[in-house]
Write a structure and sequence with these properties.
Layout (H helix, E strand, L loop, with lengths): L5 H11 L24 E6 L5 H14 L3 E8 L8 E4 L7 H9 L2 H9 L5 H16 L6 E5 L3 E3 L13 E2 L7 H10 L16 E5 H15 L3 H7 L13 H12 L4 E2 L4 E3 L6 H6 L4 E3 L2 H4 L1
Parallel strand pairs: 1-2, 1-4, 2-3, 6-8, 9-10
Antiparallel strand pairs: 4-7, 5-10
Amino acid sequence: MVHFQQPLVIALLSLLLPFSTLQGDLLCPDKIQFTFLDEPIDVVIPCTKKDLNTLEHCIAGIRKNCHEVRRVIVVSKERLTGSAEWYDESLYPFSMHDVAYELVGSNVEAVQYVANRLNRLGWIYQQLLKLYAPMVIPGISSNVLIVDSDTIFLRPVTFIGENGAALFNVGTECHSPYFFHARRLLPYLHKVFPAFSGICHHMLMQKCVLDDLHKAIQTRHSLPLWKAFLRCIDKSDLFGSGASEYEIYFNYAHIRSDQFKIRQLQWKDISAVSAIDNFKKYGYHYVCAHAYLRE
């Protein structure tokens, strides 16, 4: 009989079973009770020029339909609107070049990667902007609603439950590379709900949960979250979809605590902003007019 050492078995299972739960003290941390602050919601919208067609609709929908919102902040390279605050992405602790360098490992390769029109640099970069927004934007609430700039709310929505914990919406997307990446970040980070995805183009991220996530990744990798996040993306996914900030936060929150609830909203990906009135009439809470569908 062949006997394998436990770390080898765990590593093999992590590769073979990206959606399963691995039990045991080594992998599954104890559940905890987060302490949430009774603060209003501040909204953060990472944006680039490609979503200028939807940004004003996004901001207007938030102001009209999202309960307990105080500030609306657009994070971008330059000011894109007068309808919200602007936070300059250059004030983050990493730059686009830093992200490219950590992805590929050298300045020469980083320049080559950026020059390739098929790179996913902007898509990866905006994920980190979201995961760091509650940590770097001065005076921001501990309750931060992250909203994709092509997401338009049509009906009133609440995001915090009676216990102060986030209310999550869900999607149905299932992309295995996201969970291979998550396992490399934290071995116990798995798909908690087989039928649900955390990808639904907005998410209430609470600072106490993010602090816990940042600390867990720092402890495991001896690196800040952004560097570990990038180094854990498989090189074969540099021109594909190799990581998801929404899946990481959604599943981590549910692994760490039973305080969070799912309440399903009615939403849909659409190809034309002009159609939003029809979706509002049919009772949709929000729609997502993605650039790749609008083109």
